[in-house]
Design brief:
Blueprint: H1 3-21, H2 26-45, H3 49-78, H4 83-113, H5 117-137, H6 142-161, H7 166-206, H8 218-229, E1 238-246, H9 248-255, H10 257-274, E2 280-285, E3 288-293, H11 300-314, E4 317-319, E5 322-324, E6 327-335, H12 342-360
């Protein structure tokens, strides 16, 4: 595999790993509630100002994490991301997440230094729940996951290890064993998931690509649609563009199929350049192509892309020393129903394409030029 392809694959794997951070929201809300209950019970037994500041800071950090996840979730899961954008999203997620882990560890330290066994029990439940959630939800970013686990459970382990009580000594030993086993599991899962993501992306790149243009084929288009449609918010629009080439058949008739194939390759390159990184263009067969747009903020963005594609295809092509001019007819639909099937959307876009052709008429099609 060429070096550029390897670098591209590494970047795409990293982007998918960052997307996973924003996948689950409910555990964060549950952790906020569990920490709030435990903090309030602890503070009610020892109403010290320092505890109040610590609990408020922990709740604020947890709420900030929830807010960031809500605000950036659609972008993270369905938007076009390069490595720089993914890195920014990872940092935005990691800062409040790790801060909460630190505050939780300090909270656990103070609780285990106080003579309140019932609060010790609640606190260790919250910490164990946080560590389990971290291993599950952040396991694809192991540095964040392992660091968060260590700073949250480490202080209570240290306090327990120095208490002259066999039960606390046993808890410190068991918790340490769990931490060591958990970090090992995170690294194993990370390695396996990284290989799985890479293999899946390579599979899509090879087995699910059109043999001539190397664009995704219909199967890849379906898989991409199913994966992304399940993640977007219910009100976010999806745009489907169905297009075919006007004047393509005369190219085959006049210059032969080799020139026609070369023209399709050139069209595919222009379509790749016209779309955003998070959109997908696929060849359906012959001179027919489809484009899926996710991450739209306004329906007008679909019309803008359609105009850009039309202008791009109208530019003359230099094929085997011949200047060839063609155009594209594009049928575009925008759906706000993420439960619609791709086949239904493609049929609707194809019907719209037919209407566009009928409205333009044969005389409006860009003719072949020599």
């Amino acid at each position: 595999m060429p070096a550029s392809s390897i670098e591209s694959l590494i970047e795409r794997v990293y982007v998918e790993q960052v997307r996973s951070l924003y996948l689950h929201l409910l555990p964060a809300i549950a952790m906020w509630a569990a920490f709030a209950i435990t903090f309030w019970l602890a503070y009610s037994r020892a109403p010290e100002p320092g505890w109040l500041v610590l609990g408020g800071a922990g709740l604020a950090a947890s709420a900030l994490r929830i807010g960031i996840t809500l605000y950036y979730r659609d972008l993270a899961l369905t938007g076009p991301l390069d490595r720089t954008q993914a890195r920014r999203l990872e940092m935005l997620f990691s800062m409040p997440y790790f801060l909460f882990a630190v505050l939780l560890g300090i909270f656990g330290l103070l609780v285990f230094r106080s003579p309140a066994p019932e609060i010790h029990m609640l606190t260790i439940c919250v910490i164990v729940g946080f560590c389990a959630g971290t291993a599950t939800n952040c396991g694809l970013r192991p540095r964040l996951a392992i660091a968060s686990i260590l700073v949250s459970v480490g202080p209570p382990i240290l306090v327990s290890a120095f208490r002259p009580d066999p039960a606390y000594l046993a808890m410190a030993f068991i918790a340490t064993s769990f931490v060591l086993g958990g970090t090992r599991w995170i690294m194993v899962r990370y390695t396996a998931a990284k290989a799985e993501i890479g293999g899946r992306l390579v599979s899509i790149s090879l087995a699910r690509r059109d043999t001539l243009t190397t664009l995704p084929n219909r199967l890849a288009l379906q898989e991409y649609f199913d994966e992304r449609a399940a993640l977007i918010s219910p009100n976010q629009p999806i745009a489907i563009h169905y297009l075919d080439l006007d004047g393509f058949k005369p190219v085959n008739d006049r210059y032969g199929h080799a020139a026609g194939d070369a023209l399709l390759l050139a069209v595919a390159d222009r379509l790749r350049s016209a779309i955003r990184s998070g959109d997908l263009v696929a060849r359906l067969g012959g001179d027919e192509f489809a484009i899926i747009q996710f991450g739209l903020h306004h329906a007008d963005e679909a019309a803008l892309l359609a105009r850009r594609i039309g202008a791009t295809i109208r530019q003359p092509f230099d094929i085997e020393g011949q200047t060839i001019g063609i155009s594209a007819s594009i049928g575009t639909i925008v759906s706000h129903d993420r439960n619609q099937k791709l086949d239904s959307l493609l049929r609707a876009a194809d019907a719209r394409l037919y209407e566009v052709k009928q409205a333009r008429g044969p005389s409006d099609m860009l003719a072949l030029t020599a």
